[in-house]
Amino acid sequence: MSLRVVAEACIGCGGCEYSCPTGALSKTDSFLGIFAIDPYTCDDCGKCVSKCPVDCIVADPAWPTCYARGCPLGSRRLAGTECSVWQSNCPRCGNALWRIPGSDRWQCSVCELGLRVRCPKVHHLAGVGS
After folding, report:
1. DSSP letters along 55-74, please?
2. Confidence band, pLDDT 50/70/90 cuts, at residue 32
3. Residue that terminates a domain, selected from 44, 59, 74
4. Are the C-beta atoms of 4 and 52 separated by less than 8 Å?
5. 3-state DSSP call for residue 62?
6. Dihedrals phi, psi of 86, to nearest 5 degrees
7. pLDDT tens digits, residue range 92-101?
């Protein structure tokens, strides 16, 4: 499940931020302390959900989910392939880099590996801008 913070319910306690292994949560307002999730950094692990005392972290159906709904890395064909989860991007196309099983290099699925699939979050970003 891709996630979002319901701003009207967030109390700004920071429990979610401390539990996030990718640093995807950040304050949107320093006075109120309301948090938001960066969908490009979030790897959809869900660790923040159980840390929220007011249950304001909910599923966001507008976004594809890493390694699951909408993500090609959830398929058997690409099983074991890792994603850089926006830590590294392709300098040519901006796609998140992948590391295929047996390799120690991060590569672009399109520009270097010649695959016809890419990170769905990159695709979503391209659609949002148009």
Report:
1. --EEE-TTS--TTSTT-GGG
2. confident
3. 59
4. no
5. coil
6. 70, 15
7. 988 889 999 9
